[in-house]
Amino acid sequence: METIRAAFMTKWDKVPLLETYRQMAIRQQKKKDWAACVRWTERGLQLYRNDAAREEAVEDLLRRRNRALAKLEVTAPAGIDARVEILVCSRCASSFERVRVRGRKPALCPECRSAPNVN
């Protein structure tokens, strides 16, 4: 993209509207993948720098980035990775972490799951 940016700057002294970054940010927002949304907006902002032909394109990316960052802060308290969740074992009441995935949450910690079932 740096080569394309250099060509834009040579020809127009500005970077024209690049719809790709906005569209990808929108797609990631719809999927609620806030980290990916931040990555795409940052990439677009890095490409535009201070040379955007349309200032509203930069403002849109900034608004989307700030919203995604706010969503990441809401979903994960400070210092905790947004992709890790902390669960409590229903048998021994100890807490354990796991990577957040779709589907059911395990009721037992890894130690209790691997222990023989004593009834």
UniProtKB/TrEMBL annotation:
InterPro entries xref list: Znf_FPG/IleRS
Domain Zinc finger FPG/IleRS-type: 88-114
Superkingdom classification of source: Bacteria
One Pfam entry name: zf-FPG_IleRS
Name of the protein this chain belongs to: Putative Zn-ribbon and HTH transcriptional regulator
Organism: Jiangella mangrovi
